[in-house]
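Protein entry
_____________
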Amino acid sequence: MDERTPVSEWATDFDHLTDEWRDHSIEILADLRERCPVASTDRFFGAYLVTRFDDVADVARRTEVFSSRITMINDSHPDKVKLEIPPITLDPPDHGPIRRALLPAFNPREVDLLEPFVVEMTNRLIDDIIDREFVDGAADYAQIVPVETMAHLFGVPSEMGPQFRRWVDGMLKEGVKDVEVARKANREVQAYFAEQLADRREHPADDLITMVLNAGAQEEDGMVRPFTERERIGALFVLLLGGVDTTWSFLGSSLMFLGSHPGHLQQLRDDPSLLPSAVEELLRYFAPVTIARVITEDSEISGCPVDAGKRLMLSFQSANRDDAHFDRPDEVIFDRQKNRHMAFGVGIHRCLGSNLARMEVQVALETWLARIPNFELTIDESEIEWSVGAVRGPAHVPLRIVK
């Protein structure tokens, strides 16, 4: 039961933590793009919601006015939000040196080297479910793929997967409504990575934790300094958050879509070479992430005044449905030719793990389609329960494997 005060008017009283938003955000955003592209609310100590492609891109690039110090809007006062997860929560000039130090771990060559692991792992997961008639495409597959991938990259046992999932849910889902849940998850994650860093000092390994332990930030004068311990823990924290929930939400959404759209599923069966462009189109269509900023000085967005000290949300999903940039934006067109979507963000904070996410999803779908070519959603798509928070994805994707 949703205990939040019902929204009276989405243009002037929006609340992205309500059940109504969870169930109808696509329609709400479409309406706002048309009549009020910069919505506002007195909730959350005052906040704004930006919905159009050009405005989202403009805000993301104006880092001097729209700071990344805060990346989430919840019921906490902005002054009490202290989460530090570099480089996402850093602005220039501090942002660049940290991000550049992390990028090599996610370049195309490193991702190619990881692909055989993902191929083996996805086939193993399919082995576990292929003989069943009914499966949960989210819990049995989509939510496991990125968790096992990140455990492998961190060099920790795959048995950590369920704990990783609880922490991510605690930060990005339950914790958005319950601050104490988020604080508990935050403390536990930081303690875990502090222990792992201490272990790698004694037992270095070929993994992300050792890489972050040894990483150096190159300053403007050319000098390279080691990461501070807070930067190390924060970087590992953001790699966990970014590497898990966004990917499993998108993969789950993709399986849900294919299970409820037999024509699109047949397209991929008939022409598997369409899969890369299909992944890009599904990224555009579902774009699971909504990010926030805090306003550092009075400004305006497309002529709409916005006040310093308040937060604003950038809806990448809404930007990706903007008909000023996409032909027939509410249709999924697997061979779409012009598709410069924002699923991975835009500007200096564009997702540094985008190469990894693309590979994971493409391999996961390729493996699934090769071994389970016929499947269907067992409920109506309108009955899917979506998560509320910074990342939107289906909690469960009930599927029937058609033999």
Notes: The mean pLDDT is 95. The first helix runs from residue 19 to 35. DSSP finds 15 helices and twelve strands in the chain. The CA atoms of residues 202 and 238 lie 24 Å apart.
